[in-house]
Amino acid sequence: STPASAASTPPPGTATTQPYPFGQVQATVPPIINGRAPVIRRIATDKRYVFLTIDDGAIRDPQAQQLIKASGARPTLFLNNRYVAGHESYFTQLSEADNLVIGNHTVNHPDLRKLSYAAQKKEICDNSDAFEKAFGHRPTLFRPPYGSYNDNTLRAVADLLAAVPEATVVLVRTRGLWGSMFSWALTGTRPHLVPL
Fold first, then answer.
1. Residue 114: what are its φ and ψ, rounded to 5°?
2. pTM above 0.85?
3. Distance from the CA of 111 to the CA of which of 3, 6, 134, 181 falls in 20 to 30 A?
4. C-alpha span between 144 and 63 (Å, rounded)
């Protein structure tokens, strides 16, 4: 006989039902206060939910698109331009196949706490600029490498949005296998958090 847990697990290649439709509003984003991005420590959900990401972009597996589609998962791609440059078509195909979100993870993956405000802003803004040129839109999510940030990071991210009308920013902290991970949701006219 089949164990109950195995019986409830869909076979490989079978897409599972998402607990929330993609893009469904989960929480309201607090405003930027005193020129700093707000910090959110929890997103309340009434269903079990896992936030999956693919970070950096250094490994470009030719089977990634097939594996993502077969899993039914919708990871967010937090990419560094140093790995994307010259491989934009790979990430375009990957993101467009399943409407995956491409997020900002800085140009070079530095520990932001070790950089000045100006250097942090350059890392973040240059990555957004490159992705706007490569993919036709600016990233709506940002994750600082290593979950490392300080007050200068909060200022730099908030300042990045100053040029975007009616934009909002939030720092989302979640617990993962490797400790805390942080992401800023940078959204347009309707403030909301998106599944990360």
1. -90, 0
2. no
3. 134
4. 27
